Amino acid sequence: MATPESNLEAAIFSAIVPAPFGYIGVRTEDQQISELVYLPPRFQEKSPADTVSSLAAQQIERYFADPDFPFQLPLKQVGTAFQHKVWQAISSIPRGQVRTYGQIAKHILSAPRAVGQACGANWFPLVIPCHRVTASGGLGGFAHHDDETGFHLGVKRYLLRLEQVPEYSQLESTQHQESMW
């Protein structure tokens, strides 16, 4: 059930799309996606207000029906050059696989903590699949949240299951993973 607070919060979104874990809020600006946000079940669906949010809603629904669906959305240019480097590396992770913050850091010649910060700053989750990045010893954080029983890590777990990632806390050997870059 929507609360007065969630109705006020919903006003910033051009669309709110149902997802198996709650909703995804879609923000648009100048005929581009300016942000996608994981929203808890206290929100309600909101019909798309424009063509771009309608396109995003359709593609999000297709992803949940087929996690191999390739997103093709006009994304607003946001973030730093470093964040773009991390997001590009994340975008190259195939569905059904994960990489650790450390593996991505090694690949782009950076540090794991900096990679984690860039993952958390991702404006376009699902499109840039930051849920495919885990800690070396387990799930790691998600969207700047690390509460094991919290909403955001529940979303990450759901997405990894949807994408059929084998036991994501037990990665294949590091040597095999690194050879895939």
TrEMBL record:
<keyword id="KW-0227">DNA damage</keyword>
<dbReference type="InterPro" id="IPR036388">
    <property type="entry name" value="WH-like_DNA-bd_sf"/>
</dbReference>
<feature type="domain" description="Methylated-DNA-[protein]-cysteine S-methyltransferase DNA binding">
    <location>
        <begin position="81"/>
        <end position="165"/>
    </location>
</feature>
<dbReference type="InterPro" id="IPR036217">
    <property type="entry name" value="MethylDNA_cys_MeTrfase_DNAb"/>
</dbReference>
<dbReference type="Pfam" id="PF01035">
    <property type="entry name" value="DNA_binding_1"/>
</dbReference>
<dbReference type="InterPro" id="IPR036631">
    <property type="entry name" value="MGMT_N_sf"/>
</dbReference>
<protein>
    <submittedName>
        <fullName>Methylated-DNA--[protein]-cysteine S-methyltransferase</fullName>
    </submittedName>
</protein>
<dbReference type="InterPro" id="IPR014048">
    <property type="entry name" value="MethylDNA_cys_MeTrfase_DNA-bd"/>
</dbReference>
